[in-house]
Amino acid sequence: MEFLGINIDKLFDANDQSNPLMWLVWIVPIIIFMFYGQRIQLQITSAEISKSLEKLKTYKEETKKELVEYIKTTLKSSTDPSQKIDRFFEHFTIMPVDMDPNGIVQKVRHIMRSREDYSRLQVKALSPDISGLEASKIENILEVATTLHLLYKIVRHLFLTAKKQNNFPLILPLQMMMPFIMEEAEALKTAVPAFKQGQPIGDGIGPMVVGKMMLGTEKKTAAFETVWSESEYEGRKMYLMKAEGPAATVGRPGDALEKILSESKPDIIVMVDAALKLEGEESGSVAQGFGAAIGGIGTERFQIEEVATKHKIPIYAIVIKQSIKEAITLMKKEIADSAENVTSQVHEIIKENTKAGQSVLVIGVGNTLGVSQ
Amino acid sequence: MIFSKKQEIVIPYSVEQCGSCKATSKRKFKEGDYIFKNTDQCSSCKGQLSIVQIFGETPKE
Q1: Measured between beta carbons, which residues in chain B are less than 8 angstroms from residue A247?
Q2: What does the alpha-carbon distance between residue A81 and residue A67 come to, in Å, rounded to a whole number?
Q3: Does the bond joining A81 to the residue before it have cis omega, within 30 degrees of 0?
Q4: Nearest CA to CA, how far is A314 from chain B (Å)?
Q5: Is residue A271 within 8 Å of A255, Cβ to Cβ?
Q6: How far does chain B reach from its first CA to its final CA, in angstroms?
Q7: A276 CB contacts (<8 Å, ≥6 apart)?
């Protein structure tokens, strides 16, 4: 075939080793990829991350909008709280120095509690007539919005730094982490409607189990936003403790345990909590173990472990498996249905490890939003 | 897109149980509902109904 006097068949003849054009077709891309391969990959990865970053920005903005709307409708306020919220988003927490770790838990607890108290005051300042339940819901939505804001800022920082430096290896860890970050961001965004409507979340399964045991008993305050009561099971005295529902709070189980122990000493402690499942595990499946089943930054767990060790009280744990999304969004049926199984396992532990006349402390750990007692 | 995830629709339900005849009924979640809240009287035995479960379910297609 001839075109403009050039024989095209001859020009692209792959069998002809001496053809300079064919040689170029092979060698040029190799040279390009050798010198610019990383840059090309950087462009492709950047485009992917940029899309996720945009999504993250939308989540952050939508959540903030929802929060502002919720505050306006709930508090019937005519003033726009956006400015106050924007200022709150930029708040930071400086963790204590850990060069000398002695006494660091108390320091962390002090800082975290000061921060919680400040957030509570800020929410209360929005309206003096706000109920405790509404304030707790706003605090939780504010926490979600702040976390999304922080996630967006961190991802944007890493992304822009890698692009600025034109550094491909710098963007690789971000590319690997992006699916996990997006999963968490999606979970946080989906959590907002449940918080707004006061619906129980997956993490509330522990308080739900213990709340049922507490029905018909006299509830006393054990610590801030934490209640306890006494009951009986097959000759054993039961002390039951959970965060005070139906507000969106986890209470202060560490302080509450100290208070209960100052009045009476249980022979065993049983903690019921939600736990993150491994991929492939069924949501709502129940497992038993030992040790303090409680999440968070670690200060509550430290306090519970310390008190239990001092009094030589064994701690038994029952966990209900769920994903991060299930833990912070409206409780799934599989998780709600596991409550009966958990209750029978609590009773089993009590019967196996105590005798009639002894006493047990059962703690329902988790956010008790939408779960009374 | 081929691999884009479908937006999952979850409908919240409340399950009420009668304290005396233990009959249960499932209805859509209403704002103000919470677990162990006493609601209406049981239509069959006039016992006290209370919410025993609140959960989300994805409607079957």
Answers
A1: none
A2: 9
A3: no
A4: 31
A5: no
A6: 21
A7: A321, A322, A323, A324, A327
User: What is the interface pTM, i.e. ipTM, of the complex?
Assistant: 0.90
| Structural tokens at position A183 | 């999963």
* Contact yes or no for B35 and A197 at CB 8 A: no
User: What are the residue ranges of helices labelled H in B1-61?
Assistant: none
Residue spans of beta strands (DSSP E) within chain A = 2-3, 6-7, 220-223, 226-233, 236-243, 268-276, 286-290, 315-322, 359-364
Chain A residue with minimal CA distance to B35?
A: A371
Closest-CA residue in chain A for B56? A332
Q: Which of A122-126, A155-159, A252-256 has the lowest mean pLDDT?
A: A122-126
Starting at the edge strand found earlier in the chain, the sheet holding A268-276 runs: A220-223, A226-233, A236-243, A359-364, A268-276, A315-322, A286-290
Chain A residues touching B55 at Cβ < 8 A = 200, 330-333, 335-336
Is B15 in contact with B24 (CB distance < 8 Å)?
Answer: yes
Per the prediction, chain A carries an average pLDDT of 92
Contacts of B54 in chain A (CB under 8 A): 199-200, 330-331, 336, 370
DSSP letter at A76 equals T
At residue B6, the pLDDT reads 66
